[in-house]
Design brief:
By secondary structure, this protein is of the alpha/beta class. The protein contains 20 helices and 22 strands. Helix 1 packs across helix 3 and helix 13 runs parallel beside helix 14. The relative contact order is 0.09.
């Protein structure tokens, strides 16, 4: 069945009073729009579902959310009565239709005899990840599209270990989902299921359990830190305000300032446009406020508060955006230095970074006798290593990846912007007490471990045409592996398409150059983009940046030539 056939089938089967019916009628003669909406069923991939909120099989709407939920319910029922009783905890962010999809999901699960827990309102992704373990549920579901543009929403699935579903579990869920006709999912009523005692609403005491756990990750406190350090935080109109403010207040920080225009949730992200803290443009209002209050540190989380990024005031008084690698250097060093000074650094310590994250953090870990493991991108993979590391006798200390994601607790098995924010705030306050800024500490790390440079550009290629072009780019590079890049000989290539050592298969290419520089190429699994990662270490930061620039120029010219 082609896209037009699927479109016509939906029109024929939909209730004429359904608002989505009129939406489909409005595109009756728009073949490209019909193709985009109906060329496939929205993919249940490594992070669940993600797509634009509108009618169609390739979109986020009641029908496709209901289909996914019924399939997951059938998968959970495979595990018997205990799994149904343990139930599923569900959260959502501030996006269009997030609350509605959350209630719809809870009602379908409850209708299937599966206990459903929901919150009174929106909650951060890391709190949802924590609650899976805290409540000992069989699964978790989060309605969020993270940092994607306003038109998107998503549906992330977690399993009983608190991690995003593994490939094995995802395959089992997908097998059940594919059996479901979205128009035959039982119509359910949330209020009825709530009255029947199959849906439970979590009160604020559960939020406090999460905040208390975040606070337990502190390295320094009391007189060791300067609680008056001036800072600015913005949730970018997402759901970060409540947990971030609670954490800051309970830790005793007295001089932090919120960007008022971005304090409250806004599904249109009117004040920021693209709500990704990884993009320095998202800090515009934070910088303006920072200059007014003399802030040393600017912080931002994305709409579901799992991503976290910072800008630091340099010695000239200007704000400098840090990429995810650089924030990672500071956190890795701060945690290890603090644990060592306190005498709590274990002899069997382990950290995890993604395969496309800088190796400078590996050097820092090695200096403290801690082993740095690698994983595929995404916290499904990074936190997915925790059970195995524990079984092998290691103590997990920290995990992160370059795309501003950090996981500081083995009990919060997803990236957590709130705990990352606490640790960065604490680090800034700790070094300030010693007469140093975080910016100066970063320079000291470069002097000690090498002058690394990092660059992570990407190409956004939307739609079917974009996806096909990304495939052609990867095929071209594989068929024409460069022997020299930026004037430097390519020494080794790792193609992860069939897996490599203990890393599972993934569509990633990694190139190692003779001078120690390296770069990687991979299509994003959650966004319409192809991503590039460039790293080098030279005799100075300026030299490293220049070498990276030349390598990037050659690689980008190569892929951009692919039509």
């Amino acid at each position: 069945m082609n896209a037009r056939d699927r479109y016509e089938e939906w029109l024929a089967r939909m209730d004429k009073n359904d608002p989505l019916y009129q939406e489909l009628l409005d595109i009756k003669y728009d073949e490209s729009e019909i193709e985009e909406r109906f060329y496939q069923n929205i993919t249940f991939g490594t992070a669940g579902l993600r797509g634009k909120v509108k009618a169609g099989t390739n979109c986020m709407n009641y029908y496709m959310v209901g289909r996914a939920t019924q399939g997951i319910a059938n998968y959970i029922k495979r595990f018997g009565k205990e799994a149904r009783e343990r139930g599923v905890v569900i959260a959502h962010d501030c996006r269009h239709m997030s609350r509605e999809f959350c209630l719809h999901t809870a009602a379908i699960l409850a209708h299937n005899g599966i206990k459903a827990y929901i919150f009174k309102g929106l909650r951060a992704t890391p709190e949802l990840a924590f609650m899976v373990g805290y409540l000992h549920t069989q699964a978790g579901i989060n309605i969020t599209a993270s940092h994607n543009p306003k038109d998107y929403n998503g549906y992330k699935a977690y399993w009983e270990d608190g991690c995003q579903v593994s490939s094995t579990v995802a395959d089992g869920m997908l097998e059940e989902i594919e059996k479901i006709d979205p128009f035959k999912v039982d119509k359910v009523d949330f209020d009825y299921e709530l009255e029947q005692g199959r849906i439970f609403i979590l009160d604020e005491s559960y939020d406090q359990e999460y905040i208390d756990h975040v606070k337990s990750l502190a390295i320094h406190s009391g007189d060791e830190i300067d609680l008056d350090i001036p800072m600015v935080y913005t949730p970018l109109n997402g759901c970060g305000t409540m947990p971030f403010v609670a954490m800051m207040d309970e830790r005793g920080f007295r001089n932090y300032h919120l960007v008022e225009e971005q304090r409250d949730p806004d599904p249109d992200f009117t004040t920021v446009g693209y709500p990704n803290p990884e993009d320095p443009k998202a800090f515009k209002l934070a910088e303006e406020l920072g200059r007014k209050v003399g802030a040393e540190l600017l912080m931002a989380t994305d709409p579901d508060a799992d991503r976290f990024a910072i800008e630091l005031r340099n010695d000239e008084g200007e704000y400098v955006p840090l990429n995810g690698n650089q924030t990672g250097y500071l956190l890795v060093n701060y945690i290890l230095e603090g644990r060592k000074d306190a005498g709590t650094l274990p002899s069997n310590g382990a950290m995890v970074k993604s395969i496309v994250t800088s190796t400078m953090s590996s050097k820092i870990a090695q200096a403290y006798g801690v082993k740095m493991f690698e994983a595929l991108t995404g916290f499904k993979n990074i936190c997915g290593r925790i059970p195995g590391l524990t079984k092998d006798g290691y103590e997990y200390l920290f995990g992160y990846e370059e795309s501003v994601g950090y996981a500081a607790s083995p009990l919060i098995r997803d990236k957590d912007g709130i705990s990352a924010g606490m640790l960065v705030t604490e680090a800034a306050a700790y070094y300030r007490k010693q007469g140093k800024t975080l910016f100066q500490v970063l320079q000291e790390l470069y002097e000690k471990y090498g002058y690394f440079a990092e660059d992570e550009p990407n190409l956004i290629l939307e739609g079917i045409a974009g996806a096909e072009r990304i495939k052609r780019m990867m095929s071209y590079v594989r068929a024409n592996l460069p022997e020299e890049v930026g004037g430097i000989e390519v020494e080794k290539v790792i193609d992860y398409s069939d897996g490599y050592e203990d890393i599972p298969a993934s569509n990633v290419l990694r190139f190692f150059l003779k001078d120690g520089s390296w770069f990687a190429i991979r299509p994003s699994g959650t966004e319409p983009k192809i991503k590039f990662y460039f790293y080098t270490c030279q005799n100075s930061r300026d030299e490293a940046l220049e070498v990276n620039r030349k390598i990037k120029e050659d690689v980008m010219n190569m892929v951009n030539a692919v039509e």
